[in-house]
Amino acid sequence: MNTFSYFFILALMLSLGIEFWLAKRQATYVKNHRANVPDAFKTQISLSAHQKAADYTIAKGKLGDIDRLIGLFALVLLTLGGGINWAFASWASWLDSPFMAGLAGTATVFLLMTLVEIPSSVYQTFVIEEQFGFNKSSVQQFVKDHVLQLVLASAIGLPLLALILWVMDSIGSMWWLVAWVILMSFSLLMSWLYPTVIAPLFNTFTPMADGALKNRIQGLLTRCGFNSQGIFIMDGSKRSGHGNAYFTGLGNNKRIVFFDNLVNSLDDEELEAVLAHELGHFKHKHVIKMLIASSIMSLIGFAALGWLINQDWFYTGLGVALEQKSPAAALLLFMLISSSFTFFLQPISAYFQRQFEFQADDFAAKNADAKKMISGLVKLYEENASTLTPDPLYSAFHYSHPPATIRIAHLESSLK
What we know:
The protein has 416 residues and is mostly helical. Helix content is 71%, strand content 4%.
């Protein structure tokens, strides 16, 4: 261990300590407000539905605490405990090529991390979601999804990882800039391909049938100047009782998608208002702004890694012997520990995302019926068991959407 080891431990303990403190605040706040429906929702949401949302939030929070402890144990074991060093040394003894050993070592660690997360996913799906009436997935479907995700991650991720590792090892001191361009180009390509190539592997997307709802939506799209490659209903109900709507894709490959259970829950005017909100994100260029922000952060990260890759203390401080010093080890270490150091940027990101949501709501209120937007949101809060009383500080760190009471009040102000 060296000075950086202690610096890493401090960042890890501080970030996790705050996370546990925030989670405790959230659980206590939600529990303390469980007995009464907030005044703004008393005529729309029953006490039993409010209490179900509170219990659901608390149950997920308890699982989140366990996940954090498991994640802490796994991270320390892989870094300071020598797990990464072992993985790379083992493959180096089997493979003559340092490049292939690095690729195999990195893939092994990612596979182990994926396997560690499966028990939590099983519990979330078949215990918590089942208990609160949301799970619609069978064991067969669950296994199929995870196997398919692993196959896709291998088929798509391994070639990308190999390319980036080759760039790190071959291009020279400016490798980080080339690697960043490759990653950003790949992200754009995947965003473009996702609606028509990736998503259909998991769900069935049926074009919306002609009728009053489609005509209403087409009218909204025309008013907003939005062109898409179609309006689709997704069979989300085969896995979950939660409903949602979104648009996806880039350029001429954009699609509008409604979950089937959302279509069954909201009336036509409410669906129009919900879609108007999503179009508000498009009109205000929120997707582009988030992409730019993500690109800048990625560039800074690659630049930092470009410096760290040559620092011996970076490897030894994180449990990797200098004999295993390599681009692959540097990249893996950086990916594993970076969240401990960027944790404090989280509320800044969440703040801007909530501002985007307000802007999208304003757009929806102007281009659809604000009252229907409100009633649609209230139905979604109830049916998805979203708590109406989150802890303010917890939501400031973790909520990308404004809390229910604040969001509804903002929409109601547009009616005055």
